Amino acid sequence: MKNPESKEAAQNFQYHHAKNKMAHTESEILLSIGHAIAQVKDRISLCNVINEELRKLFYFTHSVILQLSADESFLMGFLQNPGSESKSYPEYERIVAENHSVDEKIMSLILQKADPVVIDLEKEASIARDYIKMNFDTGSKEFLAVVLRRASMNPFGVLTLFSDRKNSFSEEVIRLVQGVSFQISIAMENILFHEEIRQRDKENEILFEFSNQIVAVKEKEDLLNVLRHTLKKYIPYDDCDVLIYNKETRSYRIYLYDVLEKRLTDPVFHSMNKADYPDLNFGRPYHFPQLVDIEDLMRHGVTWGEPIYRMGVRQAVLVKLMYGSDTLGQVVLMSETKRFFTQEHLTLLHKISFQLANVLANLYVADEIRLRENEKSVLLSLSKHMALTRNKCDLQAVMKSELRKLFYFSASEIVLLSEHGERFTKFVSEADSADDEYRDQNFYAHDEISASFVDHDFPLLYDLDLLGKSGRLPRNILSKYQQGAKQMVCAGLRNEKRIFGVLSFYSDLNDNFKANHIEIIHGVANQISIAVANIIANESIELKERNTQILLSLSAAIDKVRDRADLVDIIRNKLNDLISFTDIAITLYNPLNKTYSVFAHNVQEKREFHPEFDSIVAMEYPLNDGIHDVALAASGPVIIDIEDALKNPNVHQGTQFIYDSGIKKMLLTKLTNNDELLGFINILSENESSFSDINFNILKGITDQLSNAISNILFVEEIKRRDRENELLLSVSHAIASIRDKRNFVQMIQRELKTYLLFSDIAISIFNIETGTYKVFLECCEKTVLHPDFIDIAFDEYPIADGLHNHILNSDSPVSFYIEEIRDPEMIHIEFLYQAGIKRVVGMRMEQNDQIIGAIVFLSENDWPFSQQQKNFIQRLSYHMATAVSNILANEKIEQHLSEIKNYKEQLEEEKLYLQEQAGIGYSYRDIIGEGEEMQKVFHLLGQVSFANSTVLLLGETGTGKELIARAIHSSSSRKDKLMVKVNCAALPASLIESELFGHERGSFTGATERRLGKFELANKGTLFLDEIGEMPLDLQVKLLRALQEKEIERVGGNTTIKVDVRVIAATNRDLQREVAEGRFRQDLFYRLNVFPITLPPLRKHKEDIPSLALHFLNKYAKNNGKKISHLSSKVMKQLLAYNWPGNVRELEHLVERSVLMTTGDTIREMYLPKIKTGETRVPDEINLKTHEQNERDYIVEVLNSCKGKIYGTGGAAEILNLKVGTLNSKIKKLGIRKEQIVFIGSDLK
């Protein structure tokens, strides 16, 4: 048994032995690694040595070597283990290509430590960068990192060993890695050294090749070929741009480019080609090529980053080209692949940048030389072309073709400055848009921009974007800016006295005009000034010749003019060659009224066929309308803005009409004849910019000739008018000589006057000076007759003081009024004219033998006035009309006297015939026999009414002697010396009763071959006995009632009323009250007849008178028949007294007459009384059937009664009958319904 000390000694021996053995093994491995590393020539062999040899000492999964950048700001990949599990990671390529800043937490920790550092990936993965997270996600748990240092101990890289196990790197492993790191550092330095040697050789080769090709570059295309075929061979970029730097604007612009073919069709590329880039280096002074990530550009808000990103570019290298200390430009290489460009690419670009700068400088200088030579050539060519320029078109063509060879511009313009410098006029303009609203306008020169370039000798450059945003652009320049112009250069055009115009060039590109362009413009401005002056002189000569030709042509054309239409057509055709306009009109001045009217016109159809046009051109207008008064006060032509004229307080409807129809401007000039104002020529246009270039001299020449032509036309028209008036008055005079009635007078008016005067209706009134009233004597109506109230209004009597006729009465000349001016609610006839559509009236009084007899009034539905010539004609016409009216009145009086004589003659003949008829009737007052009480009552009533004129109604059964009583009343009255005319209403057909009562005119109905007086006229001043009044038809009852009430009648077919004075005695055997109740007799007529009713008793109620009556009839008929019969037997007498006598006295008379004829002795012994059968029914009265027209007439009369005669309006007959007013009036006229025949039952009942 060993003691403890010896055991411990043994253990120590074993430990040191193992340690020594391990150290010996490590030493061998290190020697082996050192030997292997010494053989390393490149990165792959170094990777193999690390993976194969170190794995013999300890476990790890893969290794990575990072290289420190030259500026020691970041670490980049130097060596990646090809067998790493991380290669399966989705973003492996992106992550391993990323650089790692030395300021990162883990990298900073590693670089600060002298010894190797073990990093726990699990702790760092959540907060570390992507490469840590990638290794952790692919299974690594930790890694060991050691700094690789040069001999100077300066770090230049990091070796990292990854493990997928925890605690893989022990102290011994760390110490071992520390030792190996020095050898790996040496190997890495050797590799970098050899790579640098190879890179320098390659660069030298490239530079040699590049230099040989650069030397041969003479043109842009040569440089482009070098970039495309040489540089692209070593750096296979996608796009390459060479940019020129502008010191003045401190911006770059593309000088040449080599791009992918798809870029050539990309609009984004073409827009960028024209753009300026303010600073590609973001303000940082980079001289070494700068690598740019396009996504970073977009994140920094660089303007050109987004468009090239949209084109597909993902990475770019910016190579600044310097010439000494001056920046010439840049070369920009672009790739659609991220992290495409390497450090070697950047180094190569840096080295060739100096040669590129020299070539760019040479090309730029060569371009400048060629540009100057081209400018000289173009300016020489321009000078030659300018010398040949004769008109504006030539000048514009030269500027387009020659000046664009020197510099780009999108539009050019030349404007002329007025003599006093207040207005510009466009002379030549090349605009981008044909819709430039200011292309034909003049404009003021008072804005600050116009004032600035007028005051400077050298051309001025303007930034229109800046001025446009500040709102300082005048309208004419604003239009160019709105069309896309960004810049403007203006140069004054001078003659020996002043600046007379401005030459302007516009560009739709920013920073387009350079300093040399400004100098060129300054140089050509003088040549253009001379050309413009020559053109103006040539145009002036041409204009004078043209004006002379126009005036000569106009003079020849005007010599052939004979009327207004020809004149205005010629003027329009001639002016069309001079100015642009829409309409033309000539107005004449009336010095008496200080008004004007349209003499002639030529206008567009939309105005000529406007419904208001005729009335507009026919009216007279006040001169002070804001248009003609301005022209009158001016010494020459004036241009009127119609919108401004509407603000004039005296604006009239003519101005409003032309404005509403589209007229914007009007050019007016006076027309004078022998220094007296004749009128105006009015040239109208719908274009606001019209008349800007009007030649006032030619216009004056035209107006002088026009004035003479108008004077001649007016003179000819006046002669023709006077001849026409004289001819018309002579014709009227001849016609008047043969006029005998109103009908002929109306025909003459329609035939003669309407061919000369425009009127709708004419009315001739007769004055009653004593009563201060007038009545219409005659109306020739086409307009007012259509009004439904015409008949009621037209022929009534009205006061002379009605607002119209009083003025006519008191005026020696015709008076004219608008109907609205004289409307008066109390003058219903004036209101009627207004309602009928009359707008204007002209009236003149008529005088005969120094006596005012009436007035002639012309009514017009148009509101244009009668001319003064027409009024003069009306005054002359009034004398002839007065003669005609006097003749007609005299003829009417003669005809009235003759008619009265004829009427008296006819009445006497009718009375004679009637008396002869009545003479054969054997009744007389003496024949009334009656001693009984009942008859005494009748005699008493007769005594009361006989001497009065009251209407008497005789009631009683048939045969009671009603006619005998009627004659007794007439014989006892004051009318006994006149006729009592009897009409049996039951004996005549219904169609003839009206004619029988009221008479008829010749031709009023079939069979009416001559005029006949009615019973009313025969009974005038006498008595009319209407027997069987209960049988009268209802429609005739209305006319009878009117005759009784109004005491006037109208013959059938007549249109005049006849006054009658007739006492009416009516008789009936009917119960009229019962007839009224059953609707067969009019209640109002019954009341009118039932003034003094007398009921005659039937014979059966006064049998005591039978003996006397029988003996009376016996003696009468015995004597008439030549028989001697004088007695009645007692038997017969008893039979007579016993009989009931339904036929009353008439039956008794007839029985006695028959008995006389049948008796042979002197005594009547047998009386053959009839036997009345029981159950015998009475034969109904004859049924009175009516025609359809009679029923329609009755219905219309009934409706008119219910409406109280109202025809139209709410509640009128037309509304109730559902008829138009015109249709109802036609039916009333056709059916012969008259106002007098309508009885308002409701009023009577009240």
UniProtKB/TrEMBL annotation:
Domain of life (superkingdom): Bacteria
Coiled coil (UniProt feature): 887-918
SUPFAM superfamilies per UniProt: GAF domain-like, Homeodomain-like, P-loop containing nucleoside triphosphate hydrolases
One annotated GO biological process: regulation of DNA-templated transcription
InterPro entries to which the protein is assigned, alphabetical: AAA+_ATPase, AAA_lid_NorR, GAF, GAF-like_dom_sf, Homeodomain-like_sf, P-loop_NTPase, Sigma_54_int, Sigma_54_int_dom_ATP-bd_1
Ranges for domain Sigma-54 factor interaction: 928-1157
A GO MF term: ATP binding
Keyword annotations of the record: ATP-binding, Coiled coil, DNA-binding, Nucleotide-binding, Transcription, Transcription regulation
Protein name: Transcriptional regulator containing GAF, AAA-type ATPase, and DNA-binding Fis domains
